[in-house]
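Final report, Chapter 2: Outcomes

The project's central promise was a pipeline that accepts a single protein chain and returns its three-dimensional structure in a standardized token representation, suitable for archiving and comparison. That pipeline is now operational. To close this chapter, we reproduce one record exactly as it appears in the project archive, with the input sequence first and the structure output second.
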Amino acid sequence: MAMPLIPAFVLLPAFYAETVGLGLAQTGIILLLVRISDVISDPVVGWLSDYIRRWHMGKKIQITIGAVICGSALYALFTPSDTAGELYLFVWYGLLLLGWTIVQIPYLAWTVELTGDYNARVNLNAARELSGLTGILALSIFLVITAEYGASQQLAYAAIFVIGCGVIVFPLLLSLPTGRVKQPPLKLLNSLSGLSRNRLFFRLLSAWFLSGLSIGIATACFPLFITHVLELPEAYNSYLLFVYFLSGILGIPLWIWLSARISKHRSWGLAMGVACLAFLTVPMIGAGDIVFFGVICLITGFSLGADLALPPAMQSDIADWDNYLNHRDRSSFLFALWSMATKLSLGLGVAAAFLILGQGETSMSPTTTEIDPFRLAVIYGWLPAVLKIAAVALMWGYPLTAQQQQAINLRLQRRNQSLA
């Protein structure tokens, strides 16, 4: 599931903007429109997931449908025809994200069903994200091997490689046993009732949105920065991404260890603070400063492990708190809202970066863009740093600690026993 992340979110925007020829501003607008339309599907998919998981094999059926949609869209998106235009990108990118949503929401919510332990959830989420980073790293190696090919061929081969791996791995996932929820299903509008009382959910969601916005901006600027600031060939995209994600894998054990000692939210805040320091130095980089930029990729990649492992574990704790507060288990719906915020923040980040950078495009030739290297460096470095600092400030005094999570779980167990 994680293997297509690099080509789909990092390489694809620049590919359609420059290689396919849609232009930066036009590509940014299309991707934002897709994200907005996709956001609408998340609450519906989350509600359906809570409803379907009451059935025997319900979760597996949902994941299978999503995987088929996702694989088909992935191949179409990575192998565009010569006549591919704005509508082609909008339709297939939208189907890719829809399929991803159908798979991702029940998959993320699985953690809530597996354990209620505060630290065990960190381990489970870290194991899942570590596996995801391993998949990303595997595709990074594949991209390094195929770096000599042009962007079109490289993406086409990547699509075939990812789909082939999915055909092997997804049946293994679907062979695992899953539990069923016995609570009666809620109507879609009723799933929203009482949500305003859960202020911790919106606090965590806001911090995650800010962090996702910073990631979206950095993701959009990364390949452009290598080309227009470092003035290096496109092949260096693959090399530096490999460094970034390998560092992310190496960082996960530290953040797991730290979260058990100073809490999840403080560990996440420290990780974002470290990434901010690295991002602030980006405008100091000039042409050919590959070592300097490589160190920044190492530092920000090391912090990535915390971004991947800790916030989803905190969201699982929030699902328990919401269950206790509102007397209903709607974990899939909450993860759908989480997914919605993720997509919207990433989409806004990419669109904002491309629209600002695309101001030099002419209406006659949208692919002719004069990119100011310093402006690109400021957008890539300072904007994500400011957004991450705001997220740290929002989360530093977060009150849901291990002790409170344990108390919530004990009360849930007593309530469930009294209802049995």
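Archive annotation: The chain has a mean pLDDT of 83.
This record, like all others produced under the grant, will remain available to the consortium after the project formally closes.
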